[in-house]
Every structure is written in C-alpha cells, then in structure tokens.
Specification:
Number of strands: 0
Number of domains: 1
Largest sheet: none
Radius of gyration: 11 Å
Order of helices and strands: HH
Protein name: SAP domain-containing protein
Distance between the termini: 14 Å
Structural class: mainly alpha
Length: 59
C-alpha cells in the first residue's frame, strides 16, 4: 500500500500522519483497529493474522 493511501486510512481514524514514518503510522492504525501493532517488528514469519491489511508489506 502506498504512503498516500496509508495516510488517507489514518485520517479515517483521526491519526495525524504528516511526520510519521510508514511503519509507525501503520502500527498506529493497527492499534486503532484494535489489532496487535506489529507491522515490521520482525514477527511476520510467525504472525497468524492472515487477514491483516498490512500483511503483504510486513517484514
């Protein structure tokens, strides 16, 4: 997902995204969605959240 799309999604949750890095922004969105904020934390290979919107970009 492109950063522009991520910022738009963040806006839907009331998250100010202007100065946040992509990984921090995605984790803030995950937390707002009541999911584990685990994007790019090195847990991608053991993650069992198969329906995660961010899974494709995660490491």
């Amino acid at each position: 997902m492109k950063l522009v799309e991520i910022r738009e999604r963040a806006k839907q949750f009331g998250i100010t995204a202007s100065k946040m890095k992509k990984a921090d922004l995605v984790r803030a969105i995950q937390q707002s969605e009541r999911n584990t904020p685990c994007f790019e934390t090195g847990r991608a290979e053991i993650c069992q959240q198969d329906s995660c919107l961010w899974r494709e970009d995660c490491r």
